[in-house]
Design goal:
158 residues; alpha+beta; four-stranded mixed β-sheet; 4 helices; 4 strands; 27% helix
């Protein structure tokens, strides 16, 4: 059985490429696992103010269940004296989003927390074009509904 050996220079190049390749591997969505975009949620509240009553009620009743359901998210509860309650969400892309809960009831807070958890961290953009492409088509998007009668496919049994 014959074995093939690479020249020493080529072996060094292959090893260097493999090392560089291993260093560049990061967890990415869809490749091997799912990386949750929200990494940390911070609940800030005041123990004495009336605007924080609903936040304190949520923290006592539902925050522990939220933390158990989402072990991938770090949940931090911090008192913030003489300030209105707020929730900060930190995302894997380095962005953060803040929501104040000054006029929210205890029933509305889980919806706010869920929206912060499910957000990607990117700014919301309005898309003017329906198809994003590096090479836009001159003819436009193909649609089977805009074909001449002579080229339409009909039932063969007629």
């Amino acid at each position: 059985m014959a074995t093939f050996r690479f020249p020493k220079v080529l072996n060094d190049v292959i090893l260097a490429h493999n090392d560089r390749f291993i260093q560049q591997i990061k967890p990415k969505n869809g490749v091997n696992s799912f990386v949750f975009p929200c990494r940390k949620i911070v609940f800030n509240y005041c123990e004495r103010s009336g605007s924080s009553k609903s936040m304190m009620e949520y923290l006592q009743k539902e925050a522990l269940d939220f933390a158990k359901e989402n072990p991938q998210i770090e949940v931090i509860v911090q008192p913030r004296p003489s300030k209105h309650p707020l929730i900060r969400a930190f995302y894997t892309n380095g962005k953060q989003k803040t929501k104040t809960l000054r006029k929210c009831s205890a029933a509305e807070i889980p919806e706010v927390v869920k929206s912060l958890r499910d957000h990607s961290g990117h700014k919301l953009l309005r898309w003017n074009k329906y198809v994003i492409s590096n090479t836009p088509s001159v003819r436009g998007i193909f649609s089977p509904f805009h074909v001449h009668e002579e080229y339409k496919i009909t039932d063969q049994k007629q």
